[in-house]
Amino acid sequence: MSAPGAQQGTHGGGGKDGFVAVFTISNGSRVWGSYHGTGLSEELRSLAATNNGHFCVGGLSQGFGTGAFVADYRNDGVLYYEPGLTTQATHCTVAANVDLLVAAGMTAYAGGDGFRACINQSMAVVAAMGSSSACTMR
Fold first, then answer.
1. What is the pTM of this model?
2. b/e for 5-29, b at 16 or more Cβ within 10 A?
3. Nearest-CA neighbor of 33 among 78, 83, 69, 68?
4. Is the pLDDT of residue 127 over 50?
5. Extended strands (E) in 74-112
6. How many Cα atoms occupy the beta-carbon half-sphere of 22 within 13 Å?
């Protein structure tokens, strides 16, 4: 699935890896593609386009600290940013707006507490995680 020059050209070797790929509308040819994963299992669960033309993906990982992750890919397939989120998650959703990339999901702790991680335009995590925390700027 990967293309020449991909951020990660091969499967990471774990049970599961995610992949991101962009295809042309006119003929379906692949513009770029990249695997996303480690030697353990990763699942990409959500994808959102950002206002600057990037793609934000969110998911679950055993290799990135056994938890949730958010990754921001440029429109040419280069991994732009991936902050470390240290919560264990059972599922994850990502949305993007003008000011923030937002990852939200359910943790496996205490029977399923919710979490939100908000990342601003300078790619800093700006909100704490917790079942009632909103994405408010720090």
1. 0.54
2. ebbbeeebeeebbbbbeeeeeeeee
3. 78
4. no
5. 79-81, 89-96, 100-107
6. 15
